[in-house]
Structures are given as C-alpha cells and as structure tokens.
Amino acid sequence: MSLGASSQRSVVKGLRGRHFLTDIDYTRDELEALLKLAVDLKALWTRRPLTAFLPGRHLAMIFDAASTRTRVGFENGFAELGGNAQYLRPGEIHLPGRETIADTARTLAQFNAAIVIRSKRAETVNELAAWSTVPVINAMDDSRHPCQSMSDALTILETAGTLEGVTFAYIGASGQPCNSLATTLTKLGLGVRIGNAAGYEIRSELVELSERFAAESGGSFLVTNDPLEAIAGADFIYTDCYTWPGLEDEFEDRVAAFTPFQVNQKLWSCAKQGARFMHCLPAMRGEEVSDEIVEGEMSLVFPQAQNRMHFQKTLLLALIGLDELPADVEMQAIGRDLVG
To answer: How far is the C-alpha of 44 from the C-alpha of 182, rounded, in Å?
Structure first.
C-alpha cells in the first residue's frame, strides 16, 4: 500500500457519512486507507483496548439472520470506541411487517450515529441506506459480505506484510464470502483464484467485475472447477461451508459436488510450502475442511475471526468520523485522520 500520510488523511476524511454496502462502491485508495487505519487502530488496541473516540454515541444493529463474529465484532468494537450498540431482532422492532423500511431508517437515524444491518435480502439493505441520514453498513445480505472480505484482507496484510505479489485461492461454494473476496482482493491487486464445483460457480457478472479490477490493479483472476489448479502456488487457501439451514433438500447433491474440494491433509500436500489456511467460520468440520487443517499450524482461523472486530470498529470510526481531536495524546495520531 502506497498512500502517504497526507493522502491517507484526505481519503479517510472523505469517508465520513458514507454507507458501506459493498466493496465495489469504494476505490482501491479508499479500501487501502481503511486497511491502514485498521492496522494503526489495532496497534493502539494492543496497548490499550479502550479508546473512547466515540463517547456517548449509539449504534443500531438489525440482524434477521444468525451471527457470531459479525455481531460480537460490531458490539464489542463499538463499546471499545466508547459507544453503545443495540442488538435488534425481528419481533423486537416493527421491521419487517408493521413499519416500512423507510420509516425504520428515518427513525433509527434520529437516535444513532450509524446502522448495521444483516438481512436475507440485499434490497432491504439498499432501501434502508437510501432513506437513512446516517451511515448504513451491510453486515451480510443474500449476495455479499463486504465486512468479511475486508477483514480477511487485513489478516492477509498483517500475515504476509504486504498485499503485493500475494496469491489467494478460494475453493468451495460460491456464497457471500466468495463473492466479496473476489472483488475486494482483485481491486487490492492480489492474484485471486476461485475453485468452484461445477454448477456452483461464482456469478458471471462478478467474474467480469473481478477480471476488470485485476486488470486495473495489476492483479490476476482465475475461475476453475479444479481445486488443485486453484490452490497451486497460493499463499493463502480459503474455504467456507457448502451447506446451511434452508438447503437440506440439496445436501446429498452438495456433498457429492464438494467432497473433492475438502481442505484436508491430502489436498494440503499439494499446497505451496508455507501456505496459510483461512475460513470465515462457522466451519462444518468433516465437510469442507478436516480437523487437522483447522487445528494445524497453517491455520489462521481464530486470528482471522478477531480481525472482524478490528476492521469493523475501524469502519465505524471512519464512517462516523470525529468533530474534534481527542484530548488524549495517545489517540491523536489516529484522530488527525478523522477530524473534519
């Protein structure tokens, strides 16, 4: 990443008030600036976890699907920034059903500095953002998971020390993490290889976008049905579960399609020496990955999970911004990037 201090500051200040619905809406400089800010904020966290940049501010979190890392990352991260996060579930608020998305957005914006939403429909996320006067963050919809892909970029950056010259392989189902990783990482200049089972490939429009981003950034992009071709020479190998609630009728077909893509010791013997394993979790051990890989020295899954909080609190801080420089001297270096 090549942003200088003045450019970093200018880019970060320009993010204030923005929504974060998909990585596609952000430039490479903006994504890199967020990663640089996350590195700095995490370094400060290692010395002192509580850094009250946003005292007295409130965050609404609407989740109509289950969540562990996303929810806890936002909730704990915002608390460490000095704010208060409220977890809102269907049945506790009037969305969906009794109240329109527009009215919900405009009401929550009266009380909160930002709104996080995990929805089963991208249309709901987009409509909420269209009506909200405070930043809306997509905590996963039916197609994308941009907080996951950017958190994973942070893990790759801190593990490899750079994003330049890094080759990343994703093998398995073409779900939300796969979709966002393809576009995020090609935009950031990585070599990206996607290995999907036949009939379960990443959508053609995302292939076209990823190819364009790779051409613009100096990265590369490959889609294949061969897991060994996908992982050949990769520095990071990533997978995700291929079954989840609601797909019970497809279980046997999916097992047949994805068994050759299981990340196990046999597959890992074909990986580049020193390659690292990543998984967004939850892991269905014995299905897409074996215990020996999740628990092996190649695994990054739990530091990767922790980075969900570090990136998500960074995102909140950048989108909400600061009105004045913190009085605390140790917080001022980061604060200077955010005041405006």
So the answer is: 30
Q: Domain of residue 286: give its range.
A: 146-303
Same domain, 162 and 285: yes
Catalytic residues: 118, 145, 148, 240, 280, 308
Alpha-helical (H) ranges within the chain are: 5-13, 28-47, 69-80, 101-111, 122-131, 146-160, 176-187, 204-217, 227-231, 251-258, 265-268, 291-294, 301-320, 332-336
Alpha-carbon distance of 71 to 336, in angstroms, equals: 28
Number of domains in the chain: 2
d(CA 222, CA 224): 7
Whether the model pTM is above 0.85:
yes
Residues 91, 219 within the same domain: no
pLDDT tens-digit readout, 165-201:
999 999 999 999 999 999 999 999 999 999 999 999 9
Average pLDDT of the chain, as a whole number: 95
Question: Does residue 327 form part of some domain?
Answer: no
> How many CB atoms are located within 10 Å of the residue 120 CB?
13
DSSP state of 321: -
